[in-house]
Amino acid sequence: MTFDKDIVAVALGICKECGIDDARITLLRGIENSVVVDNDRVDKLHQASSSSLYIQILVKQRYGAFSTNIMDPDVLRKFIRQAAESTAMLTIDECMVLPDKALYYRGGGADLKQYDSAIETLSSETRIETAMNIGREVIGTDRRLLSVEAEYGDSVDYVYMADTQGFVGESILSNFSISAECSIIGKGEEKPKEWWYEGSMFFDSLKKTGCGTMALERALRRLKPVKLRSGKYNAVIENSVASKMVAPIISALNGAALQQRNSFLIDSIGKNIFPAEMNLVDTPHLPGMMGSRYFDGEGVATRNMSIIERGVVNTYFINSYYGKKMGIKPTIEGPSLLKFAKDGDISGKELSLAAIIKSTERGILITGFNGGNSNSATGDFSYGVQGFYFEHGEIVHPIREMNITGNLIELWGNLLLIGDDPRDCMRWQIPTLSFGNCVFNGI
Amino acid sequence: MNDYFKIFNITKEYLSKLIAIAMSKGGDYADLFFEYSISNELSLLDHQVNAIGKDADYGVGIRVLKGEQTGYAYSESTAVKDMERAALAAAQIADTPSTSFLAPAFKEIKFVNRYPIISPWEDYALSDKIEFLNNLDTELFALDRRMVKVTERLTDSDTKVLFFNSSGDFFCDERPLASVGVSCIVSENDRIETISFSRSFRAGSEMLTDCLKKEVIDHIAERIPIAFEACQPKGGKMAVVMGAGGSGILLHEAIGHAFEADYNRKGTSIFCNKMGKKICSEKINVVDDATLQGNRGALNIDDEGIPGQKTYMVKDGILNSYLHDRISAKYYGVAPTGNGRRESFRFNPIPRMRATYMENGKCTAEDIIKSVKKGVYVDNFLNGQVEIGAGDFTFYVKSGYLIEKGHLTSPIKDINIIGNGPQALADILEVASDNRIDNSTWLCGKEQYCCVSCGMPTVLIKSLVVGGN
């Protein structure tokens, strides 16, 4: 699939006409198709294509970020001229610069295999049939099934970026997904609901069967929940939601959070903050993976990086602006494809969810979060949880109305196991995690 | 109105033609939603107003209904070929052989303007916006030596909407929305805490008053000393007093979503068999209201042509109405309630809340607090969530107090509270007479985002599960 990208050169030319010192223009193009099926009937057909320009400019060390989906050159000229005039009224900020050119991605990387041209010839009938098949797996199989909502979706995301320092980069990704949400008859008026999701960048690799069945099984497992007493329990967090305990760490290592002192990981570089079993790496060049990319939003080349090695913090995520502001070398604006590296101490063990539960005497398996938040400055968190109480490797019963509360550094200090079961369809490859001595609040 | 036709480069005749294309496959209903939105943003960091932004978004969403089924497509261009391609794509939801449809005559829908703009943002000088942010920054740093960082954000947007449907209903609406957000980092003895505050209105630049500035300053000043004393309490099940204002998040999460009629139509809401039944104390009236002037949740007319109105979801303790869009209203055989909303022309409308609040009861907040031996008082929130079918909801408390023997004692912070919607509603024991609408920048996510607001008088809930150590 090819997209017309001439508008980027036009926009850069207009920036020059308007006396803008430096500019970065990003063209975003997207195509989306989705089919939603309610039980055995198509509920919604959705089709869309979108296009927008993101225009970042520097006018005498003043910064503005503008966007528009109106591509007419005359309208764009007026838009950029006004942008330049308003940006010129800001305070000078000497840290506002384009990246050091030496950090740019210069092309030549192998194909990351993120685009499937099959998307160009997929018929509406195939899309509808794929969506219909999700629900057919479960309709009529269990009298407790109240409804199943299934969705098939596919999309193309194209990015073309160029700046006044000569950077040019582009990427194209396809994505195919199916999901199912099953509602079942519960106690009284309750209708517990669970969902499942499969995704792939290639249509043939998309796992098209089993999704509806999995959603129904997960919903049925939630029948007859029990309210547990407050106390300390081991926590096993399923791979589909375990990134909840990693995301606040990544946010806290971001330059903006560090410079604004809104981070619980200030001055953490080189310090042993996390357990020795923790090795978190960014591997941005793995082919066929959702998170892979050769350059970040500034055009800076991505590379394999150790973020946390044997518990020691190795990397902050620093873009050009915060690099200058903090007086440190820029790295990358954020991780691409996070994963836990194997560690000698735990390799050789089977670390599937079942194995982790089996090796954890008793505790709570968290399969979903219900709200909650964390304090970025302190690392304190409190989240609502869904899941199951287990003993001796066996699920005993579902739980309900429980919170897990604590502090992220203390939580990771109680790390028991890091699984080896990340889901391929997720951008961050976070496996099942288990922690000891977590505070759960219940009755 | 002519300006709108010019903006979207269309004529009434062409709208009739486009709606006929959308209906050409035998749809029951179709609508066209043209939208042009300009959003501006200005931010302050480290004492400098150092970043500016603007977004221009333009396009048309075309929806076709066949029974309860939806076909939806949009175009970011109003070139004839692009709009007609989108209309044909949406039409595919109906599958009868091509039929001819003659669009009826235009009927302009009349409505009350709930957000008259006194001073348009486009007339407000950028230098004045910069001065507002700089002055606020100076005053915030003058408040307390423990202030370490301040970031501020001022946004304003103006959205022009033109709507036409296959029944001939037509309207144009201009929707302003602006907000001021402040985030402060305070530090004492190596302890760092964050305090945030926001205000948002459907208003022009007249909202940037000294009174608004004072509200920001007073809020931050009040919270600084508390921030260093507060800690996570001992968790468990206990009585919860929800203070007036932002506690409306309880209504939004615990019952509001479950009253949205799409979930009930599909039989997946925990309230789907409760219409006309008593669900809580007769002291309780819960409203979803589009008519509050200048409120973030106000709507002159919804995104499918139903004028804004006040809807009693709960009246005297009885479930009185769901929140309807056109599809669910037809399904239930009732009039739509004006809750058909969408994030932008890129989305089809679905039932969404507006300003959701509880009307006043009779007692006082002081009496409620006095009646609690052990529990928590909460009045400052960040976010919430709900499981519609099971009814379990949560909200995250940024700050509050312990209640011990009828008095507010130690400050608390950073805890999640979880409960079950129908049970929590039934467990509201007392309602005070101090209802207040909270004008924070509330944003509701349900497949798509919509700006909303909420409000609440002080209430006592018998027990909820409170997060803590």
Description:
The complex is a heterodimer of chains A (443) and B (469). Chain A has two domains: 6-220, PmbA/TldD superfamily (PmbA/TldD fold, 2-Layer Sandwich), CATH 3.30.2290; 231-441, no CATH class. Chain A is α+β, with helices and mostly antiparallel strands. Chain A contains nine helices and 16 strands. The model of chain A is unreliable at 344-348 (pLDDT under 50). The relative contact order of chain A is 0.13. Chain B has 469 residues and is an alpha+beta fold. Chain B has three domains: 2-40 and 54-108, 2-Layer Sandwich (PmbA/TldD fold); 121-160 and 176-229, Double Stranded RNA Binding Domain, CATH 3.30.160; 236-466, no CATH class. Helices cover 22% and strands 40% of the residues of chain B. In chain B, strands 1, 2, 3, 4, 5, 6 and 7 form a seven-stranded mixed β-sheet that branches. In chain B, strands 11-10-9-14-22-19 form a six-stranded mixed β-sheet, with helices on one face. In chain B, a hairpin with a 2-residue loop joins strand 16 and strand 17. Chains A and B meet through strand 2, strand 3, helix 2, strand 4 and strand 12 of A and strand 2, strand 3, helix 3, helix 4 and strand 5 of B. Strand 3 of chain A pairs parallel with strand 2 (48-66) of chain B.
Write the layout of secondary structure elements.
The complex is a heterodimer of chains A (443) and B (469).
Chain A: H1 6-17, E1 22-38, E2 41-58, E3 63-68, H2 73-87, H3 124-136, E4 145-163, E5 168-184, E6 193-200, H4 211-220, E7 231-237, H5 247-252, H6 255-259, E8 280-282, E9 305-309, E10 312-313, H7 320-326, E11 338-340, H8 353-359, E12 362-374, E13 380-391, E14 394-407, H9 408-413, E15 415-418, E16 433-441
Helix pairs in contact in A: 1-2
Chain B: H1 2-7, H2 12-22, E1 29-45, E2 48-66, E3 69-75, H3 80-91, E4 107-108, H4 126-143, E5 147-165, E6 169-188, E7 191-201, H5 210-229, E8 236-242, H6 249-259, H7 261-265, E9 286-289, E10 310-315, E11 318-319, H8 326-332, E12 340-341, E13 350-351, E14 355-358, H9 365-370, E15 374-386, E16 392-404, E17 407-420, H10 421-426, E18 428-431, E19 436-438, E20 443-446, E21 448-451, E22 453-456, E23 459-466
